[in-house]
């Protein structure tokens, strides 16, 4: 006889008393959270050593669904908050789960500086190319020409390439996947969880209800199919060559995996050094 | 602090901006340590967003603001008291904070410890609001034996993880605080939340939460408030001052007494919560009150409200220098008539 259970294998990693979540049907944010939970499970990660921090927006709600110590901060400040946590308790692994608008518009300054300092944390950015929660405004990753609530004539700005920005800012681990590439994404998250230093994973997620509607990209399945058609996996290319043009070509893979001294380690070393002086 | 903190096992970080500093202070507080930041007026403006987050998530922390001439960039490194209302109301919404005002180097030391104690006791951001004179003056400081310093720490959960609700208050309206890594797997958010820490947008939860955040300070105001009184017992003319102007006021009041004028000085060490009850009580014996502030009129309105119908004269001071003792003395003589 096979044992049956009403329990999902990932239930232990999620706050089931908060289900159903707020995300729309077809949204890729649930997939990101699923892959994150799967990575924790596969690593048998000690949840007592984990702090999950997020900012504002659809993606930012993820911290509220993870069954670990979790803090939902103000808009854009998750990484700065996480830096304070890491300095105060270097034994914690901090994961920042948030979105493109939160992390790269209002929070952009904290992102580049935490990467520069190499503060030990894993930042997982679900990129849906717009501010979905507030009705679909243009953001720092919205492709040129794309339609949003606030770019009714098409976006006239140039978007960030997030992996290039992360690499240039000093991140020690940088990768990009989509909500379709769940096995590779999970593997990347496992690496990020085990990596010491500032790690960054971009996850391209479909937003069929908001961004998809504005740009007539079809339903969730169509958007996922397009991710499959348009993406190409290229491990190890320089991050600045990892193109992202969602309508034509998205380069996926791991682009940076390097080592450098971590910030909280350096603080501890400084404390030791200053005691003698 | 960059020099001294590492020597005692602490950490100092100069953040990229004040938004980040304040966010990191809350993060460190939630990781279980005592954390603080220091700034001047414009920096305090930038911190307001996350001061609101500290209020909402009840993160114990200390913010030192050395007030300078303002608005905007104003007069860097020049004395003022322009942030009296900013520190009280600068973040959006209804809330209470605690603010202490030192009038000497010794008090800068003592009140910073007091601020940590109050922030831990009531789980509320606590401000030390110095003016630039106090920030730069050099004078005698006695550092007490650490064994003689009272240290208060936040209440910890008295029950195991499965039974703990992170925002369930005790009788004092303050919830015990679990920190990251202690196994409680709690959730905290800047959103309106229930006792589990889960977002809840209902009218009932908003009302219950905001009332508690305010009442935990208001109901304990008499335990929090500290005042320094000079010749107040039989005073008919009361000078109300805080920070460096109070030093001039002390001199002026002493001179007035030598002239037979029944003047007294009420020096506010705590400005928030405001000592309304104490002033109401005092107003029964007063013929007039004089308020000194190094701004164009902020705390004077609170004093007017409390001592009504006692006439209040206001001595504003804009630009660098605190009031001189003779200016205060002239005001006292005018009140005497």
Portion in strands of chain B:
15-25%
- Unreliable spans of chain B: none
CATH H-level superfamily title of chain A? Thiamin diphosphate (ThDP)-binding fold, Pyr/PP domains
The quaternary structure here is heterodimer
Largest sheet of chain B: 6 strands, mixed
What is the share of helical residues of chain A? 25-40%
Question: How many structurally independent domains of chain B?
Answer: 2
- The CATH architecture term of the largest domain in chain B is 3-Layer(aba) Sandwich
The global form of chain B is: globular
Question: Under the CATH scheme, which class of the largest domain in chain B?
Answer: Alpha Beta
* CATH third-level topology of the largest domain in chain B: Rossmann fold
CATH topology (fold) name of chain A: Rossmann fold
Structure summary, number of beta strands of chain B: 12
Major pleated sheet of chain A: 9 strands, mixed
The average pLDDT of chain A is 96
CATH class of chain A, anyone?
Alpha Beta
CATH architecture of chain A: 3-Layer(aba) Sandwich
Would you kindly provide a written description of the structure presented here, covering whatever features stand out?
- The complex is a heterodimer of chains A (277) and B (337).
- With 277 residues, chain A is an alpha/beta fold.
- Chain A has one domain: Rossmann fold (3-Layer(aba) Sandwich).
- Chain A has helices at 29-43, 78-88, 100-106, 108-117, 162-169, 182-194, 211-214, 220-230, 263-275, and strands spanning 50-54, 69-72, 93-99, 121-127, 173-178, 198-204, 231-233, 244-245, 249-257.
- In chain A, strand 8 and strand 9 form a beta hairpin.
- The radius of gyration of chain A is 18 Å and the shape is globular.
- With 337 residues, chain B is an alpha/beta fold.
- Chain B folds into two domains: 1-224, 3-Layer(aba) Sandwich (Rossmann fold); 228-336, Rossmann fold.
- Helices cover 35% and strands 18% of the residues of chain B.
- Chain B contains eleven helices and twelve strands.
- Chain B has helices at 18-30, 41-57, 86-89, 105-122, 132-136, 203-218, 221-224, 245-258, 276-283, 300-307, 325-336, and strands spanning 36-39, 61-69, 75-79, 98-100, 125-131, 187-189, 227-230, 237-241, 263-268, 270-272, 288-293, 312-316.
- The longest helix of chain B has 18 residues, at 105-122.
- Chain B is globular and about 70 Å long.
């Amino acid at each position: 006889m096979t044992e049956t259970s009403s329990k999902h294998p990932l239930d232990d990693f999620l706050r089931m008393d908060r289900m159903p979540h707020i995300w729309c049907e077809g949204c890729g944010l649930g997939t990101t959270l699923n892959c994150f939970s799967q990575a924790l499970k596969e690593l048998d990660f000690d949840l007592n050593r984990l702090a999950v921090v997020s900012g504002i927006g659809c993606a930012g709600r993820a911290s509220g669904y993870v069954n670990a110590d979790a803090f939902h901060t103000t808009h854009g400040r998750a990484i700065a908050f996480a830096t304070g946590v890491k300095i105060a308790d270097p034994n914690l692994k901090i994961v920042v789960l948030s979105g493109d608008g939160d992390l790269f518009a209002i929070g952009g300054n904290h992102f580049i500086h935490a990467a520069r300092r190499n503060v030990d944390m894993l930042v997982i950015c679900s990129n849906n190319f717009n501010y979905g929660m507030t009705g679909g405004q243009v953001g720092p990753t919205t492709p040129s020409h794309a339609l949003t609530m606030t770019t009714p004539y098409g976006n006239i700005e140039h978007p960030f390439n997030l992996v290039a920005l992360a690499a240039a800012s000093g991140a020690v681990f940088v990768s990009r996947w989509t909500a379709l590439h769940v096995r590779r994404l999970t593997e990347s998250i496992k690496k990020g969880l085990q990596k010491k230093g500032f790690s960054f994973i971009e996850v391209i997620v479909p937003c069929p209800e908001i961004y998809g509607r504005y740009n007539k990209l079809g339903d969730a399945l169509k958007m996922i199919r397009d991710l499959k058609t348009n993406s190409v996996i290229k491990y190890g290319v320089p991050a600045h060559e990892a193109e992202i043009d969602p309508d034509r070509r998205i380069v996926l893979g791991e682009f940076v995996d390097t080592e450098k001294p971590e910030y909280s380690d350096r603080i501890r070393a400084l404390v030791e050094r200053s005691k003698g002086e | 602090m960059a020099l001294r903190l590492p020597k005692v096992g602490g950490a100092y970080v100069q953040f990229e901006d004040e938004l980040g500093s304040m966010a990191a202070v809350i993060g460190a507080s939630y990781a279980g340590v005592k954390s603080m930041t220091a700034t001047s007026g414009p920096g305090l403006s930038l911190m307001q967003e996350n001061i609101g987050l500290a209020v909402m998530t009840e993160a114990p922390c200390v913010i030192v603001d050395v007030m300078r001439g303002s608005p905007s960039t104003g007069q860097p490194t020049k004395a003022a008291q322009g942030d009296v209302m900013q520190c009280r109301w600068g973040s959006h919404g209804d809330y209470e904070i605690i603010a202490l005002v030192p009038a000497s180097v010794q008090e800068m030391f003592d009140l910073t410890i007091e601020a940590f104690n109050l922030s831990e006791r009531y789980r509320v951001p606590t401000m030390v609001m110095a003016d630039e004179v106090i920030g730069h003056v050099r004078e005698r400081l006695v550092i007490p034996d650490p064994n003689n310093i009272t240290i208060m720490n936040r209440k910890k959960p008295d029950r195991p993880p499965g039974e703990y609700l992170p925002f369930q208050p005790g009788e004092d309206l303050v919830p015990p605080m679990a920190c990251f890594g202690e196994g409680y797997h709690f959730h905290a958010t800047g959103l309106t939340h229930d006792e589990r820490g889960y977002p809840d947008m209902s009218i009932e939860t908003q009302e219950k939460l905001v009332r508690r955040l305010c009442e935990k300070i208001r109901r304990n105001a008499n335990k929090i408030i500290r005042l320094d009184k000079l010749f107040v017992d039989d005073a008919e003319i009361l000078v109300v001052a805080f920070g460096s102007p109070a030093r001039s006021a002390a001199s002026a009041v002493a001179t007035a007494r030598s002239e037979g004028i029944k003047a007294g000085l009420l020096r506010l060490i705590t400005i928030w919560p405001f000592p309304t009850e104490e002033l109401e009580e005092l107003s029964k014996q007063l013929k007039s009150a004089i308020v000194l502030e190094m701004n164009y009129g902020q705390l004077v309105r609170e004093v007017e409200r409390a001592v009504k119908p006692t006439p209040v004269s206001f001595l504003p001071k804009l630009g660098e220098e605190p009031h001189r003792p003779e200016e205060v003395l002239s005001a006292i003589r005018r009140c005497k008539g």
